C-alpha cells in the first residue's frame, strides 16, 4: 500500500519561502546586492529568524542559486511545450524561449547563469561550486536538445556560451528595439547552424 507524501512542516514551508525570496533577489540584484534583512522582509519574516534556517549568508545564496536554476529550467520547459506541440524542434523551441522578449526584460525569473554570469567566478567556494553546477546543467540541457548530432558536447558549449552572452548584452542595451534585434540575430544564426 502506498503511503501519502507527508505534508511539509511549518519550518520547511518557512525555509522554502526564504529560499524563494533569495532566489528572486539574487537574480534581481546579484550576489553582492542580496542582504539577509531584505530577503527575510520579502519572505514576510523577521531578520532574527534567519540563523534558525541557515548557517550563513553564503549558505543561503548557494541554496537560492540552486533553486533559481531548477525554477528556470522548469519554466523554460513549460514554455517550450506548446512550441514543440506545434511542431518546432526541441532546439528551436528552447532558443525561441531563452532568447525571447520576456527573458530579456525578466531577469528576476530567468536563467541565473545569464543574470549572474560575470560575478560567479568571484564568489566564495560554496557558491562557486553551485555556479559551476548551473553552467554544466545548462550545457548538458542544450546537449540533450541536439539529438544525435556529431560533436554535440562541443556544439552545446558554443550554444550555451552564445545564448548567455547574447542575453547579457541585450539586457545592457535594454528591453527595446536594440536588445530585441540582438536576440533575434542570435536566434537566427544559431538556428541556421545547429537546427538540422
Q: What does this 3D model show about the protein?
A:
The chain is mainly alpha-helical and 196 residues long. The protein has one domain (10-194): Tetracycline Repressor, domain 2 (Orthogonal Bundle), CATH 1.10.357.10. 71% of the residues lie in helices and 0% in strands. It has nine helices and no strands. α7 packs across α8 (152-173). It starts with 9 loop residues before the first helix and ends with a helix. The model has no long low-confidence stretch (mean pLDDT 92).
Give average pLDDT, whole number: 92
Determine the N-to-C terminus distance.
48 Å
> What's the β-strand tally?
0
User: Which residue ranges are poorly predicted, with pLDDT under 50 across at least 5 consecutive positions?
Assistant: none
Biggest beta-sheet profile? none
CATH top level class name: Mainly Alpha
- Estimated helix fraction: over 70%
What is the global morphology?
globular
Q: Give the name of the CATH architecture.
A: Orthogonal Bundle
Backbone CA Rg: 18 Å
CATH 4th-level superfamily = Tetracycline Repressor, domain 2
The tally of structural domains comes to 1
Structural class label:
mainly alpha
Strand content: under 5%
CATH topology: Tetracycline Repressor, domain 2
Query: Order of helices and strands, N to C?
Result: HHHHHHHHH
